[in-house]
């Protein structure tokens, strides 16, 4: 969604405050260049203290304040945390999951298909939307918050699941055969005997249940979008804050939601990107997460909203001076039109007391507020040149929930449930290091033809149709990089019983039928050497060239990396995982081969896009604690932050964690 | 409580014996100088095999034996382990806690507010007390054993808790506001909708529930004291064996009981101190634990009973020769009037088979018995000179259950639920290393005016009254050492929403509003350098002097340690944790500044006190496996163990793990 | 059981196949020299899709195929995995164990004493046996699969357990005394008050319950043997695939089954041996596991069946070329008459998808099939010379379920539930390294008189009768090696209350009453030195010679290893655990002392036996990745694989992972 300005804001919770501060806070916001707040998404019990008693006093106070101080407002539906009275009314609102019965307390502990929950949540959504729809400050709505099915295994959910299976497989024999349920006597020949799903040892069934859980999430979005749609103005948008798989920070695509499907119910995609800071800040999460968000509504609607990101964040995450500003521009450089912090003020009670906001607990302007103030006022000044950034990337990365689930059900050596995203990040982080920008694609929405190169993180689970399409893409002149385990199983995790990688073996020009964990094995290329890890397939080239064999006393006759010419295109296969430095050398060879240019000589991160005026804008981002000098790699332009001219090939200098943005004016 | 002799004894369990041994054992005890046994605290089912059938045969056998062999007896109430028939009668006697429903087997698994438990336990207490009260050998009673609420979350307890909350907060709005329950829709506007407490994400509520659990423990003490009081003789004392937070050994103050409140129901404080031995023996647990016990009845009644400590103990704990004797004197040096082992004989079945007593499983005198025999006979000989030791310490350490709970609910980087005690031990272990003796104080019983220096382990949770009192203490000439996070939140863990440390910032002369975990940060002072760990606040001095800034490329402008002159006193702040050697240098600076003398040149541990005759007694304790020579630091006196004279400045020599006690006779 | 040929085969699952392949597969098998399949043991739901509807179509297809292609068939009873309809019929079929209520999904999750399970499982067994008994290809039956009680703690089991206790102990006082139940008030004076066993803290009771669980396993074997016996032909054998305690591979004797008792219901013992490969392949698991299996039916019936072992196995286990063949001969060298892989084909769905068979998922001959083909055809050629191998070992190792349970209930420092088997493996792996072959013995079946040397892994729990018998064995000229903790407790884990090791102290010539964990302690012998670990007893020699004292500043006066002459024999005691190299030096001393010859100079593994023709056969096995040259240590003979003559003292050369078998023809 295009916007007429950059949004800069914070989540705001009047109801959490130790004392009334709306005027004070909004004044501070305006002074710092904030122009947006997000409210309401967690406070059902505040506005419906007892069943049916609605009181929007505090909501009105915030809206009045917002209008007074010129802040736009996103209103979230308060449905991800349920009131105590609702649980008293129907204890089954708290769901049962793989770990047993939930108790009250945490958010996101309810059964999203429980009828009681739906009835009262629906009423709340309507009351709220109706109440705020006419307020001028309200620019949009956020459906719920980081929505999932929370692993619901309730009786409602399981019954629904079996009903859908029954419809999909009218013939129980076909069902048992396809899912391999003769194994360990797990057959179901009478649907009424379908057992509790929670300890199934059949990964096809487990994966099917995870897919079901993603489907009810989609239906949940559709339901909320419908209710809000009854009241919302035409000019108000509908968004959602999608989040990510997580290892200490945003890691990769989320296993529990099909974001591409869910985003169909939205006007604009939003996301929550959290990352480490201090010496661990790299900017990689901002690009990875942003690239997913940018792809959710298709390449024609690339701009997205960062609805949550670190202010001070967790205790370990406190930023060094300069880092917040660097990150803000990194989001914009990637196509975001909004940078919104979670959250404005630090909270004085409860579990997120140490997830700090723009203001510390003393609620007075401190170091973080001062840095935000710089950002906010710069955004106001130069925002028109850098909003609605449009990308023309030549590399596309295919994301698949089914493959991700497959890699979770059958993980590699040590990466566990992150076995998919760890490879995805390996493949894309090296692109980042080489200043190659890339797009993401969902399986249902992909268009390979847009890209000179398509990258497959382990496409463990895929339909034959998709595999054939990839084959045709290469044959027709496309260039493919495929990671290990791609093409191994079908859409329900049944292994394809023929030559691996199934179908893809032709384009890749290889075959294998054995694999193991690498122990004492290395991969060498271009003068770099690194340990193989996680997984290794004993690949034999058929028509492919071996770029790197395994270095090992016994496995040395097999290939670790192969490159094949197939039809008009090229296909590279990575049969194991190894160091990023070695992969970078291999990428260089591949991209040189296919003639895809990149600038990995630069000591800074470079992002490019085209702005509303059709001008190219280049962002130089210094992700280091040292001052860096480098050469401008583009036509003459204007440095937007200091309004100086930058000549073609001109020298630039960035302070630690510094930023320079050059607009090439036509 | 003063005593007319040193007690030396062991817990005794006639009912666990593989064959009848009372005469044999008591004779061995008398020969070894034992004069005390503790009996009865775990054997309800022995004396009430079936409901209402009381049989005290074995009890009488022990009492008869004790009288024959001149042993004093402490009778414990057998209420911490329930009989099988009681659980059959009311299964709810086994409590529900945060981990779910308890099953039968372990001790301390019952619901102490269950009415059935109270009814039958009360009857047992009365029957037992009535039966033994007139026996001359019975000198006192022990209430229960290491009593807690065992995390009861039973329906009885939760209902009681909500009832008390309701009384405390007649206005639900005030309750919701104070506890911040709007957060994540957790409001309770109808007390009947109060949810199960066990998964609350509101740490204020969780802490309040822990406080409730400590309150019912206090009430449990009051109840038992009342029942015993119906029968006990005037000259019989009432005690309890308080224990400690635990990491492989006694660590610090216990989170689950307010020992100061519970001790009000007792005649004399008792404690269970367990510690590692062999190369890991330091004596620090004996001082830490003993100092807590010594403070429980106030400084006017300093003497306490060590009711349990290592005999052979756990497999890893077997003492080297000499260590048991060293420890026995260390207890006495600290103010104990009793050293009692757990336990006399090793047990032949069940979970504590490998927690060995004075006798090994062969039940014949071995190495441990022989060493005890030395101790017992020495105690008999010199006990009158070293009992009822009185201390005049100039340093006081403030202990707070609320702060401890706060640090458990919001732990630092890696110390988890021990985040409070780890700092408390850091602060006090360095005192120990410097031969500075110190007292403990409870929040409800403190008297700062007694001390030249008051030390605050992280006083995370504190009322404004307490913080103001600390401010006045410094202003009036007191000297304060405060650890990080002190003054951060109020008594229900709501963060104070103004300058940190709340109120204390004035006396400390500092402020901060940001903190993080230290990574690659060091603290340097007096030629020592060590890594900062667990927590670091970015402290800016206001009126204070920076003793040590952080050594770090970015955080170097903030202070790790500050010293402030305030009114007539001084206040030092430790904004992070670091190595003991560095802290020792900082302590030297501080104690020199305030003129508090100490003797940290000695290669041995030194303890001082005043005995019944008003004479100073100095204990020299060699906590090492090497022989040590050193100089007597006191007036001329008599070495009590070998009855030799020791001149002022005289040379002394201790063998490995050796002891020398000098009485300075007036 | 003697056989007329070597069996070589694989488990086969027609019902798991993605498409019909019986003909294809059996043809491939025959070509590769396979002559055996095992079928049916996991597919109850396939043949009884709905209660009472039996359909053996797929079974018949397999039997027809087997007969066409000349394969023998072992039919397993399909009772270790229950159908969904059975659980719907009686949810209690899924058992309750120490972790709570089982859900459907995994195998081996049922209550083997549940009457519903027994009723329907019994009917299935009879239907199946009746159906196949007359088929010529069916050579035998396998009862169930790796059977245990699966820790059942169901109401049926617990009631049964209490009933048996009541019968065993008519006097509750005697029961309480023997089990030490006065401890922590755990007495049971009314059998109706017997509490849930699951959280007992009384290890005697816990061990008794484990013994009960093993008893019902025995009864389960008896029950199945009886049902099969109604139908089976005289010439058909009855076997079972016993498995092993496990740490990443087969580790040692299994704690949950008395294999010696269970084997009484069988014609021939079988076993499942799984082990690591690649650089971690040592052959030790094949010998350890095989030696147990060889002993189960007594030394007169030594030959056993390896019913399952690695084909490709788990991902980490993929063999190097040559390893499969080496292992196949290692099994035969040890006395096996059958090598059967688990399994023929890799599975395309569910939890064992990555436990790969002879064929990979592509179901075409690959590297593994080709190597099997070599083995199968060699077996066909030379099998008659190496089947029915008979051993005359002079060393016997005593295995005890009770001792194993005791070491699990009271583990040593870090070995946890494996505390017994870790020592057993330490003691026997060094024998393996020295090329000393040994037998195993069960407590109920032992005959010490057969052996020149008896080795006791920690005989923690033993009757006085057994200890006396060991005493007499040594006195009469036997030679004993006893590990620490032997003789410590009686048959219900009650510690013997006199000099340790109980009774054995006389033969060993030592005593001790203290023990600890070794820290900084080493054991030195014969120029080797290694750290003591897990456990150390402070042993004082009485009549024994100290072979090695502890090397330590304080414990140095105690003995780590002692050797005693007693009557006509010798007894060695190992009071701690230490490095294998050091133990090997000590073994050398001991075996030299007692005159037991061995060949530990060889750089290869050597196995010896006598074949059907009464000829000695020597197997040379190269467990390394290097070529090895060595000298034939035997009379002149014929190398069976290449049919060359090998002279006495002749030079031999083995390639990496190579094998040479020399038959010394009379």
Shape verdict of chain A: globular
Quaternary state of this entry equals homotrimer
Stretches with pLDDT under 50, minimum 5 residues of chain A: none
Distance between the termini of chain A: 24 Å
C-alpha-based Rg of chain A, rounded: 26 Å
Give me the count of strands of chain A.
Answer: 36
Number of helices of chain A: 17
Secondary-structure-based class of chain A equals alpha/beta
**Biggest sheet details of chain A:** 9 strands, parallel
List the chains of the largest interface with their residue counts. Answer: A-B, 54 and 45 residues
Q: List the strand order in the largest sheet of chain A.
A: 9-8-5-2-1-15-14-13-10
| Portion of residues within helices of chain A | 25-40%
Strand fraction of chain A:
15-25%
Overall mean confidence score, pLDDT of chain A: 97
Highlighted features:
homotrimer; 666 residues; alpha/beta; globular
Description of the molecule:
The structure is a homotrimer of 666-residue chains. With 666 residues, chain A is an alpha/beta fold. Chain A has a nine-stranded parallel β-sheet with strand order 9-8-5-2-1-15-14-13-10, covered by helices on one side. In chain A, strands 17-16-18-19-28-27-26-22-23 form a nine-stranded mixed β-sheet, sandwiched between helices. In chain A, strands 30-31-36-33-34 form a five-stranded antiparallel β-sheet, with helices on one face. The model of chain A has no long low-confidence stretch (mean pLDDT 97). Chains in contact: A-B, A-C, B-C. The interface between B and C is large, with 54 and 44 residues.
């Amino acid at each position: 969604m295009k916007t007429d300005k950059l949004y800069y804001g914070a989540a705001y919770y009047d109801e959490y405050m130790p004392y009334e501060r709306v005027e004070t806070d909004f004044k501070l916001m305006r002074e710092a260049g904030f122009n947006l707040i997000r409210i309401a998404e967690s406070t059902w019990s505040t506005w419906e203290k007892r069943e049916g008693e609605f009181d929007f006093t505090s909501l009105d106070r915030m809206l009045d304040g917002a209008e007074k101080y010129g802040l736009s407002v996103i209103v979230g539906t308060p449905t991800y945390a349920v009131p105590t009275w609702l649980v008293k009314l129907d204890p089954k609102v708290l769901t049962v999951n793989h770990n047993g019965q939930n108790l009250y307390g945490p958010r996101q502990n309810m059964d999203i298909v429980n009828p009681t929950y739906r009835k009262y949540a629906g009423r709340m959504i309507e009351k709220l939307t109706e109440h705020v729809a006419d307020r001028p400050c309200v620019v949009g709505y956020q459906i719920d918050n980081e929505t999932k099915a929370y692993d619901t295994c309730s009786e409602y959910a399981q019954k629904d699941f079996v009903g859908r299976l029954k419809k999909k497989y009218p013939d129980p024999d076909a069902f048992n055969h396809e899912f391999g349920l003769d194994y360990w006597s797990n057959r179901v020949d009478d649907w009424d005997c379908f057992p509790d799903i929670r300890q199934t040892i059949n990964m096809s069934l487990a994966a099917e249940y995870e897919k079901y859980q993603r489907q009810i999430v989609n239906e949940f979005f559709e339901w909320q979008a419908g209710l809000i749609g009854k009241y919302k103005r035409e000019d108000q948008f509908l968004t959602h804050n999608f989040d990510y798989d997580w290892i200490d920070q945003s890691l990769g695509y989320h296993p529990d939601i099909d974001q591409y499907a869910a985003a169909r119910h939205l006007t604009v995609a939003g996301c929550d990107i959290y990352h480490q800071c201090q010496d661990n800040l790299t900017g990689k999460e901002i690009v990875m997460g942003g690239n997913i968000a940018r792809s959710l509504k298709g390449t024609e609607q690339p701009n997205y909203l960062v609805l949550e990101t670190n202010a001070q964040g967790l205790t370990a995450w406190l930023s060094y001076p300069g880092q917040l500003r660097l990150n803000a521009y990194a989001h914009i450089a990637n196509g975001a039109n909004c940078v919104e912090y979670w959250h404005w003020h630090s909270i004085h009670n409860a579990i997120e007391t140490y997830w700090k906001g723009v203001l510390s607990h003393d609620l007075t302007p401190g170091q973080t507020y001062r840095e935000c103030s710089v950002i906010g006022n710069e955004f106001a000044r130069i925002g028109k040149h850098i909003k609605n950034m449009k990308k023309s990337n030549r590399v596309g990365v295919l994301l698949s929930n089914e493959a991700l689930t497959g890699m979770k059900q059958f993980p590699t050596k040590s990466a566990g449930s992150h076995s998919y995203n760890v490879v995805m990040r390996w493949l894309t982080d090296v692109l980042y290091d080489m200043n190659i920008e890339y797009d993401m694609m969902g399986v249902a929405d992909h268009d390979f033809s847009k890209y000179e190169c398509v990258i497959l993180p382990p496409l463990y689970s895929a339909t034959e149709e998709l595999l054939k399409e990839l084959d045709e893409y290469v044959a027709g002149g496309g260039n493919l990089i495929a990671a290990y385990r791609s093409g191994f199983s079908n859409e329900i995790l049944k292994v394809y019983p023929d030559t691996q990688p199934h179908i893809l073996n032709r384009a890749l020009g290889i075959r294998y039928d054995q694999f193991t964990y690498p122990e004492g094995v290395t991969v060498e290329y271009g003068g770099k050497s690194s340990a193989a890890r996680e997984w290794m397939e004993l690949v034999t080239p058929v028509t492919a060239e071996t770029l790197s064999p395994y270095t090992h006393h016994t496995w040395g006759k097999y290939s670790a990396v192969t490159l094949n010419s197939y039809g008009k295109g090229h296909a590279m296969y990575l049969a194991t995982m190894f160091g990023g430095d070695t992969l970078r050398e291999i990428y260089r060879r591949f991209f040189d081969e296919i003639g895809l240019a990149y600038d990995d000589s630069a000591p800074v991160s470079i992002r490019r896009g085209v702005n509303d005026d059709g001008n190219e804008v280049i962002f130089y981002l210094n992700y280091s604690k040292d001052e860096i000098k480098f050469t401008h790699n583009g036509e003459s332009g204007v440095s937007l932050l200091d309004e100086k001219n930058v000549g073609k090939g001109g020298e630039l200098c960035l302070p630690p964690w510094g930023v320079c943005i050059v607009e090439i004016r036509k």
